[in-house]
Specification:
This protein has four helices and no strands. The protein is mainly α. Helix 1 crosses helix 2 and helix 1 packs across helix 4. It is globular, with a radius of gyration of 15 Å. The two termini are 23 Å apart.
């Protein structure tokens, strides 16, 4: 049961990171909701992530994953290509920062 709670929490944090990145790029975007962010993160995990695993030694799956990622974000949030790129870059930075904060909190926790 703990694994289910951890998976749901990780999904919720990923959606929050997505919402934060979209809000920074397009502050007044009416499509930036938690439900949409959860749906987008689910679609990316379902359609994009498998293409970037062991298939990443081939260039075609990476190109398909890139096009799918851009399409998902551009359609879901009504973004232009440069805005979608900005969201992706900000997601990377925010996700890295969240990972560092979580690591520090886990390391400094009770022993």
């Amino acid at each position: 049961m703990n694994w289910l709670v951890a998976a749901l929490l990780r999904w919720l944090v990923s959606a929050a990171v997505t919402m934060a990145a979209v809000r920074l790029v397009t502050p007044d975007n009416p499509h930036n909701t938690l439900g949409r962010a959860l749906g987008v993160t689910f679609l990316v995990a379902l359609l994009v992530t498998p293409l970037t695993g062991w298939l990443s030694i081939l260039i075609l799956p990476l190109l398909i994953a890139l096009v799918a990622w851009f399409a998902i974000y551009m359609i879901a949030y009504d973004l232009g290509p440069l805005q979608a790129l900005g969201v992706g870059l900000l997601q990377t930075v925010i996700g890295w920062l969240v990972g560092k904060v979580v690591a520090v909190l886990l390391y400094a926790g009770p022993r």
